[in-house]
Amino acid sequence: MGEDKVGVTIVESCPLTLPSPTLGRGIWGSSNSRFIRALFVLLFVWGPQLCWGDENQLFSPDYLRRSWEDLKELPTKPFHWSSREWWVTGGILTGTFSSFAIDGSIRQYFRDHRNKFSDGLSAAFTHFGDYRYQIPLHLSAWFLGTVFDYAPLKKSAADGAEASLFAAGMITPLLVRITGRELPETNEHPLKFRPFVPNRCCFPSGHTTEAFAVATVLDFNFRETFGYWHSPFLYGIAAATGASRIYDHKHYLSDVILGAGIGWSVGYWLATKPRNQIKVSWDPRRPGLLWSWAF
């Protein structure tokens, strides 16, 4: 497919006004003055990027527009799946439903086989699926990618934040509410489902969804740089996160399989989706800015 470029002249600025430092004690003299000053410096340095950034620049208007378009596409996405994507979905569902038969046995196995070493490993890996640890990860990737102008890091932050929101913040909680399965630690029968009953938050696993969504985003965004060398490491951590949820009696195997499938699918979709790169240039012979979109 050829490349069409559209040029639009825009005479519009995005001013950034800093508060006057002559405000007495005010915000500049408070205990948080260092943080606030640093924030204003960051906004001053990256103000133009926040106004005219591309779709992979976290917090930019273009990123918000991109996220909104992806959100609108999400409910109808299955209607546009290829045969390969349907086969992948079928495999995930087959693995999920097949594991129903052994969910109870695996729960009992981990009850009978516990030790301090395994407890420590589980406590370490479970955090990779916790949004309280994922948010700093996304922000750090965005910060470093912006400081060093490293596109894979910036795109990983953008894709990762969106994948976490869609997969672990929307799809999985909706399924959890619909299915109404109780946690393994309650000793309830593994196949007992009570749809729309509050506080039954088991199927699928949110931590595993989060872990695989972020691992998949990082995997595909860094393949051009590292090939496939990092893939086993990333998916190994995500799998260990799922295993920790089973070990801690927070989820069954079927919960983890479905959560991993959701996280991987959403992460793959967002990380491999073509994005329009918006370029801003200035022509001294013409007033304003020249924006061009490559499709």
Label this structure with key terms:
295 residues; mainly alpha; Vanadium-containing Chloroperoxidase, domain 1; 11 helices; disordered C terminus
Account of the protein in words:
- The protein is globular, with a radius of gyration of 23 Å.
- Helix content is 58%, strand content 6%.
- By secondary structure, it is mainly alpha-helical.
- The chain has a 3-stranded antiparallel β-sheet with strand order 1-3-2, with no helix packed on it.
- The longest helix has 29 residues, at 151-179.
- It is built from 11 helices and 3 strands.
- It has 2 domains: 1-52 and 279-295, no CATH class; 55-275, Vanadium-containing Chloroperoxidase, domain 1.
- The chain starts with a strand and ends with a strand.
- Helix 7 (151-179) runs antiparallel to helix 11 (253-272) and helix 8 (206-221) runs antiparallel to helix 10.
Main sheet? 3 strands, antiparallel
CATH topology of the largest domain: Vanadium-containing Chloroperoxidase, domain 1
Integer-rounded radius of gyration: 23 Å
The oligomeric state of the chains shown is: single chain
Q: Largest sheet, order of strands side by side?
A: 1-3-2
Report the top-level CATH class of the largest domain: Mainly Alpha
Bin the strand percentage.
5-15%
Summary of the model, kept short:
Helix content is 58%, strand content 6%. α5 packs across α10, α6 packs antiparallel against α7 and α7 packs antiparallel against α11.
